Amino acid sequence: xxxxxPKEIKPQEFRVGITPNAATEAVAHGHEVLIETGAGTGAxxxxxxxxxxxxxxxxxxxxxxxxxxxxxxxxxxxxxERKMLRExxxxxxxxxxxxxxxxxxxxxxxxxxxxxYETVTDAxxxxxxxxxxxEVAGRLAPQSGSWALQKANGGSGVLMGGVPGVRPANxxxxxxxxxxTAAARVAVGMGANVTVLDRSIPRLSYLDDVFMGRLTTQYSxxxxxxxxxxxxxxxxxxxxxxxxxAPQLIRRDQLALMQPGSVLVDVAIDQGxxxxxxxxxxxxxPIYEVDGIIHYCVANMPGAVARTSTIALGNxxxxxxxxxxxxxxxxxxxxxxNLLNGLNVHAGQLTYAAVGKALGIDVVSPQAIVAA
Length: 372
Ligand SMILES: NC(=O)C1=CN([C@@H]2O[C@H](COP(=O)(O)OP(=O)(O)OC[C@H]3O[C@@H](n4cnc5c(N)ncnc54)[C@H](O)[C@@H]3O)[C@@H](O)[C@H]2O)C=CC1
Ligand SMILES: CC(=O)C(=O)O
Ligand SMILES: [Mg+2]
Known about the structure:
Bound molecules: 1,4-dihydronicotinamide adenine dinucleotide, pyruvic acid, magnesium ion
Number of helices: 14
Radius of gyration: 21 Å
């Protein structure tokens, strides 16, 4: 199979979909790997590293899209990239379709088959291709939020760890999954006073165990949240209902309950965001203010640490990429129901229920697609 990897074109996105190590493995499996020139530069991988891996360097994204049977990327295809997708072509990348009707329409119109990293599952009910980037975004969230808390950035001027005699920052993390746990680890490490909210009691129990009293856990309901936010300097949104649009947990009128200059970090922004006032921002212009509250809503946070993120993502995607290339997408999905859960679009049909529900589009079950 010809596996193509274009350079990412989303603003300030420095990750790349295929590492030289993954290229080496794909070539060893008998595949041809096509990399756009400079695709890996932002992550510290130059063209020479791909050539040494046995890949071919092409000059433009158009050549990659025209030649490849499977496109492997990081971010959802941008409008220009969507125009280059064709019927029968396989796309393997993050999609986040539920909050993105335009992308969904274009993918359906292209006739391609699209497998979304963020809905591939594992045997334990986890999301193995989302998890590595959630680990990164979670670790970055308190770091970015603490920068936003500084006066020069519009924040209230509260220091995360406080100092002797002055209280530390109060940080609430809504959602105690992969992002939330990583965020808690860093926020606790910075000396903040941390509360994690979740709707899963087993998850709260786990966090209570592993943090051994260094944070507070709280069941997440509307009343608890409303009471809590008045005391918080920072609220990190880290909820997920896989594939679905994020539930909105803080309304605009509730911002008035918070102290001016407090910070909302909406990591769940790639699924539409969990605060009513969230809108996606970029690393170039990451924050904005609504009713005195600073919002940080960067939809590709891991792109900021592209080297670490590219290697972590490549480690997780490689076995799936090899299965898709070795067997073809249909056989690979028939053999692995967890990979089948990644199927979001096939030949003009939507195949992921939560996306269909969010966008009001009829869905065909992925099992029916592979059985056909
Ligand atoms: N902005 C960015 O750059 C990135 C964003 N993300 C996003 O971060 C979000 C979280 O991802 P993960 O931690 O990997 O998901 P996860 O599935 O590991 O954790 C989500 C948690 O949210 C909880 N939850 C669901 N509804 C809730 C509610 N109403 N209140 C409280 N908790 C609730 C679940 O019980 C679960 O524990 C996702 O939207 C993901 O796409 C992930 C990586 C990068
Ligand atoms: C998960 C995701 O959207 C990202 O890493 O950018
Ligand atoms: Mg994202």
